[in-house]
TrEMBL record:
Keywords, comma-separated and alphabetical: Guanine-nucleotide releasing factor, Repeat
Listed Pfam families: WD40_RLD
Domain called RCC1-like: residue spans: 3-349
Organism: Magallana gigas (Pacific oyster)
Record-linked InterPro entries: Ran_GTPase-activating, RCC1-like_dom, RCC1/BLIP-II, Reg_chr_condens
Keyword Repeat belongs to the record: yes
This protein's record includes keyword Metal-binding: no
Top-rank taxon: Eukaryota
MF annotations from Gene Ontology: guanyl-nucleotide exchange factor activity
Cellular component GO terms held in the UniProt record: cytoplasm
Name of the protein described by the UniProt record: RCC1-like domain-containing protein
Length: 356
């Protein structure tokens, strides 16, 4: 039973929530229309009750997208379930279609980190290589040329749904990049180089959200100077059209589309072409929902800003918030926030009770 265990991680998908316990068990609840919960929900009311997913192995990390979920086990295996979609609808999780139960995604490789976009999955291996699968339309797989980006073109669905390696050469060098972290937004992907901490990005770039100061979608990884030299970024998360970054000193930056206040720079709707710093206390984690942003401070407070429509900002109303605002409320009065995750229309906080 989930009540007898401690939750060590919680992530929000499009319309579902996934929790990892200290025993490495995975619990899901929410919408299961396309198998995102990874368990049978034929019994009425069972979707909204946190229930365990039958998993081979002990989970250590979670990721979730619009209609899919993935878990990394302590043996470096990746299991996923659910469905990927593109502009034309369902494409399946594998070439066998929607998967309602966990299926191993990358047998034979030892994975150390996973990241989910809206409809794509990234797996970072112990060798520092990244494998990608899912929707390729905006370039988010980093390995599929534009001519094959719609359902794999003449190469077929298998070309995008079977995880395959992303080839990436180092900035100003002929050597292969070795990565040590990977991040994803709705249609974008970001990765950090092991030796230098440099950031590479690929995918949708229609509002400068990759940080490359241009508006071209990137179908292969490109070096992001603004996140590698001008600012030393250690964590990236992204929504649909914006990204939020954390640097080595705990400072927070946003880049991309400005509407609805998601960048936190006040009432201006102008986009930011390169990451722009926000006035916040030192932070330990940042996160983005579709058009919202979050920052968790070192002292366990949480700030939220952006589009208020789904009441995702936890402010009790649905007004847009254009600068970082401290999230308050009865439930947070006696708790410190450890982590935040932004879903399609909801937000999940992981918190710990403060000794009274």
């Amino acid at each position: 039973n989930i009540d007898d265990q401690k939750i060590v991680s919680a992530v929000a998908g499009g319309m579902h929530t996934v929790c990892l316990t200290n025993k490495g068990e995975v619990y899901t609840f929410g919408c299961n229309d396309e198998g995102a919960l990874g368990r049978n929900t034929s019994e009425e009311g069972s979707e909204t009750l946190p229930s365990k997913v039958d998993l081979l192995g002990r989970g250590i990390q979670l990721s979730a997208g619009d209609s899919h979920t993935a878990v990394l086990t302590d043996e470096g295996k990746v299991f996923a379930w659910g469905n990927f979609r593109d502009a034309n609808g369902k494409i399946g999780l594998t070439s066998d279609g929607i998967q309602e139960k966990p299926i191993e995604m990358l047998p034979g490789e030892t994975v150390i980190k996973i990241a989910s976009g809206g409809d794509h999955l990234l797996c970072l291996t112990e060798k520092g290589e990244i494998y990608s699968c899912g929707c390729a339309e905006q370039g988010q797989l980093g390995r599929v040329a534009e001519c094959f980006s719609v359902r794999g073109g003449r190469k077929g669905l298998d070309y995008i749904l079977k995880p395959a390696i992303i080839r990436c050469l180092r900035h100003k060098s002929k050597k292969r990049v070795v990565f040590d972290d990977v991040y994803a937004g709705q249609y974008m992907s970001y990765a950090r180089e092991k030796d230098t901490g440099s950031i590479y990005a690929w995918g949708l770039n229609n509002y400068y959200q990759l940080g490359t100061n241009d508006l071209e979608n990137k179908f292969v990884p490109v070096y992001v100077k603004a996140m590698s030299e001008d600012v030393k970024v250690t964590m990236v998360d992204a929504g649909q059209h914006h990204a939020i970054c954390l640097d080595t000193a705990g400072k927070v930056y946003t880049v991309g589309r400005g509407e609805y206040g998601r960048l936190g720079h006040g009432d201006s709707n102008e986009e930011k072409r390169v990451p722009a710093i926000l006035d916040l206390p030192p932070c330990k984690q940042v996160a983005a929902g579709q058009a919202v942003s979050y920052a968790v401070t070192n002292s366990g407070e949480i700030y939220a800003w952006g589009m208020g429509t789904s009441q995702q900002l936890g402010s009790g109303d649905d007004e847009d918030v254009t600068t970082p605002r401290l999230m308050t409320g009865k439930q947070l009065q006696t708790r410190k926030v450890i982590a935040v995750s932004g879903g399609g229309q909801h937000t999940v906080l992981l918190a710990t009770d403060t000794p009274s």
